[in-house]
Amino acid sequence: MIYALLLIFSLFVSGCSQEETEPSKAPPTKKTGAPETYSCAGCHQHSLDLPHRRLSCTACHGGNSPSHSAEEAHEDLISQPSHPDHMGQSCSPCHDTAIEQSRFSLHFTLKNKINIIRQAFGGEELQSLIDIPSQQQPETISELSDDLLRRRCLRCHVYYEGEPYSGVLHGSGCASCHLIYDDGELQSHSFVKSPPDSQCLHCHYGNFVGADYHGRYEHDYHWDYRTPYLKDGTSSRPYGIEYHQLTPDVHQRAGLACIDCHSGNELMTGDRSHRVTCRSCHQDLQTNLELNLPDNITRESSRLILTTRLDTRKIEIPPLQHPAHEQYGEHVQCQVCHAQWAYTDKGTHLLRQDEEDYDPFAALSVQGSFEVEVEVETSLYGDESYPYPWMADKITGETPRGLWFQGFELRRWEFPIICKGENDILHICRPILDIFLTYTDEEEEVIIDASPPPNAPPKGLMPYIPHTTGKAGAFYRQRLKENNTLLDDPPFLEKVPQKTGNP
């Protein structure tokens, strides 16, 4: 009897074991052992350059890896370690000299740009953009110009990631130049030593030097002038507004990138003592033995050869040969004859408006500012509106009341303006300080009326160097004739022989 019972029990157990081997009928099991862990690489798939690949993610970004939860992993996380506020902690352990020097470079301080505006409106010279006082309720034109700088002008600098347009958005601090952004997104976590022009154009777009190197000139703001018109009513505006495609600079057409002339030493350290000039490259080696050359230019016999930094192509540099260079080289800046066109936007009007009246700007909502565009169109055509007109402080991110609009009396690229700079040297000039500021409060009362800068030069003209170089052609004589007060022997203009192929 006992034997029979044992046989039945063994058959029952055997049957259960066969059923458990079928996956579809297997009972759920509970995991045991260590809890699940999280790592940076498990969630964030990024390719890294070789030097940074040797570091852990937390070496730069902080946080905790591995960890047992996403919350724990992100404790004390630094999302932008190369931002100027963090680069001392994150980047300096490996790049201490470069970090310390870069803090004083013009890319970090924008010292020249901000002081041109501040001093024209009566402000004192500052060492950096972060020193500009915050003026939420300006009472003087000088205070209003500070608010203009912080909220409207400074849309591109290393403390700020730029407007959310596809061709503009970029990293901060070191990443502004050295991490590749395209179509508004980070493309790779690999830092590049030599940034391509697309990186420069994240900030040097619009009617500023850099865009002209590629032959670009902004369209007028009014929607009647912003062509081409597309069937779906949209257009490609990677830089906030459409642009005319004009003739690019001859150096750009030859294949030179921005960094072929503007070295890392100049851009990152602020050292401009060895800045490249036209004459430092285009030397006549038969008569000039001054060979203070950039590191990407070498001498081969009687020729100078430039090696491009991005693709290492060899380009022969033509020397200065035309007699006009010897005659006028000390009195005329090169672009006076060689600029093909220049930015000459006249009568720049900037209005800070605190009241909610967007109707006058219905046709002018697109003006290179994402905040103006979205706020005007949302208020006029959207289901909701903003609680008050605002524009962010591009240094702190705060959003005080007041929206800055911009417009021009005249926008042209023809007929470069020629004026005298220091030591009576002729330059191409543009009306940089032909500016009028207006401020109206919430009650639509005019607090500060439109006024030109009290310390600005006549017509706001200041020398600048357009990056639109080309052959001088037949027009250089006419440009010099119109400014012949420097010429001891004006008839010489008729004696200068024409030569083809002059740089």
Automatic annotation (TrEMBL):
| Matching Gene3D superfamilies | Cytochrome C3, Hydroxylamine Oxidoreductase, Chain A, domain 1
Record's signal peptide: 1-19
Q: What GO molecular function terms would the record report? A: oxidoreductase activity
For this UniProt record, the keywords arranged alphabetically read as follows: Signal
Q: What is this protein called?
A: Cytochrome c-552/4 domain-containing protein
